[in-house]
Input
Amino acid sequence: MPGQGIVVRLARRRRAAGDGAQMARNYTQNTATRAINRVFATLTRLGMGASYRHLLTVRGRKTGQLHTTPVDVMDVGGQRWLVAGYGPANWVRNARAAGEVTLSRGGRQHRYAIAEPAPGEAVPVLRKYLTDIRVIRPYFDATPASPDSEIKAELARHPVLRLIPKP
Output
């Protein structure tokens, strides 16, 4: 995976410095996580749960079938952003290939084009994500208080996509 060496070196450097930091966990889907995703998807479909959670629907890059998954949408700098908190999942690859996604919540749907931001634009988004969504922190080597360089290093493992409203 491109850029993964940066994250691994960062984690090794932190452990060598003796600060006790552990390397970030890798997200794996098992029966429990699939069940939790179904619960979150149902709550989001009904408009319940965290206000930042939406259902993302995107066309598969290989099959062309529509796939739906719960995602967290961040509002930063007057724009909306998607963050792959658990790593570059299939929804990220599919969104990049399709160039557009549909977000839904509580019966409302909105279509968006997506764009890859410059690393400098994505750092404040990742920082807010780390601050607001605590459950994902074990999957990052950086913390909300980390310097910009450490947060920027996370972009290889946690892509950020800008959402551009479509008419």
Observations:
- The mean pLDDT is 85.
- The beta strands are 53-59, 66-76, 79-83, 100-105, 108-115, 160-165.
- The chain has one domain: 4-165.
